[in-house]
Specification:
Mean pLDDT: 88
CATH topology of the domain at 87-161: Dna Ligase, domain 1
CATH class of the domain at 87-161: Alpha Beta
Number of helices: 12
Oligomer: single chain
Structural class: alpha/beta
CATH architecture of the domain at 87-161: 2-Layer Sandwich
Largest sheet: 6 strands, mixed
């Protein structure tokens, strides 16, 4: 077989679906999608693994499909993590500059000092330490301190942690599927890589990833990430509401949501009808699409109201000049940007992955934002392309042993 470019594989382990994307990355940094695979997710609840064996089978199916399309063997992946166990804290670290000029070693020491001040519980595991800004002497708002003159370097960081057991179960599921985990990344960070522009990050933006089991939030201000949150509500809640409200099965409720669901009652046209199969031997019936919208709209408003509260409680009201970008599978519901604007009182757009070539017609939808973002994260921040994707030898993934490497991943 002809020599291929570096291969990176993103594995999005979601509550309702598992998606694998294989990309070739050229020496010039062009990301070319060559394989996509997906399967229903059977073993997760609100982003957390609750059945390892079912999760393993779903992972195998998604990975096999992607490998077949790419025409290659997959040995290792970059994967994401979410769930209500995720939490973020802010910390600061200060160091004296030994040479009166900021070096990479000084940056490393400052970030480590900030991390050491944040006390982690024994059941918590460090996921990311992300610098928000640097301060050299009295000059703040610095994003690139290397080479600057001064006597003192201070850093303001955002520290993200997760439950040890939840992270271990994700890695264990991937390993049992015959794969190594190159690294594990917070899902909203990955999605942000795929759907946000640098201009939006500078102006201030809230990225809202509407998944099946959770709604993931990442807030950027002045080009840096300032806040993350995982909210325990998602597309599955809409499906359950439709099933209960229309007296139909969850499978049929999901089909109705995808094909004829709409997030705003005022967007429904007159005389639109929906066929609703019944449960058991009872005959099906026909309802107006407006009735479906009346079931969906309150839950959608609840989703965005939780986002609004998170923004307000953390002091970001009035700081989001670029508004809101919604992504994820649930964002594809008709009328979702309008619903977001109505509740959040901010301009909203639906975000699809960008910055990739190849199978964009398949991978360029909001539901693939996290998987594509994992690949972009690997390319932009990790510098470890030689360890991921297609290789003849297996690598034992020591994900939790690389805190020092994670420290500066966003710098």
């Amino acid at each position: 077989m002809a020599k291929r470019d570096h291969i990176v594989v993103g594995l999005d382990i979601g509550t309702t679906k598992i998606c694998t994307i294989v990309a070739e990355v050229s020496g010039e940094g062009v990301v070319n999608i060559v394989g996509v695979g997906s399967s229903p997710s059977r073993g997760l609840r609100k982003g957390v693994v609750v059945d390892i064996e079912s999760t393993v089978e779903s992972i195998k199916k998604a990975v096999d499909d992607a490998a077949l399309m790419a025409g290659a063997e997959i040995n290792s992946v970059w994967t994401g993590i979410a769930g209500s166990h995720i939490s973020g804290v802010r910390s600061r670290g200060v160091v004296a500059l030994k040479k009166q000029e900021v070096t990479r070693a000084d940056v490393q020491r400052a970030v480590e000092a900030a991390h050491s001040r944040a006390v982690l519980e024994p059941d918590r595991r460090l996921l990311h330490v992300i610098p928000r800004e640097f301060i050299v002497d009295d000059q703040d708002g610095i994003h690139e301190p290397l080479g600057m003159s001064g006597a003192r370097l201070e850093v303001d960081v955002h520290i993200i942690t997760g439950a040890v057991t939840s992270a271990q179960n994700i890695i264990k599921s991937v390993n049992r599927a015959g794969l190594d985990v190159v690294d594990i990344v917070l899902q909203p960070l990955a999605s942000s890589e795929a759907v946000l522009s640098q201009e939006e990050r500078e102006l201030g933006v809230a990225m809202v990833d509407l998944g099946g089991g959770t709604t993931d939030l990442a807030i950027f201000v002045d080009g840096s990430i300032h806040h993350t949150a995982i909210l325990p509500i998602g597309g599955q809640n809409l499906t359950k509401d439709i099933a209960i409200g229309l007296l139909t099965s969850p499978t049929e409720a999901e089909r109705i949501k995808i094909k004829q669901g709409i997030a705003r009652v005022d967007l429904v046209k007159e005389d639109e009808l929906v066929d609703v199969p019944a449960v058991g031997d009872r005959p099906g019936r026909t309802v107006s699409r407006r009735e479906v919208a009346e079931i969906i709209e309150p839950r959608v408003e609840e989703m965005f109201d939780l986002v609004r509260r998170e923004i307000m409680l953390n002091g970001y009201e009035g700081m989001l000049g670029a508004g809101v970008v919604i992504t994820g599978g649930t964002s594809m519901l008709e009328g979702m940007p309008d619903a977001a604007e109505g509740v959040l009182d901010l301009p909203a757009r639906r975000g699809a992955p960008h910055g990739v070539e190849g199978l964009r017609d398949i991978a360029g939808t909001p539901m693939h934002a996290t998987a594509v973002g994992l690949i972009l994260h690997a390319c932009h921040h990790a510098g470890k392309l030689e360890t991921g994707g297609l290789r003849g030898s297996r690598r034992v993934g020591k994900v939790f042993g690389r805190m020092r490497e994670w420290m500066l991943e966003f710098f």
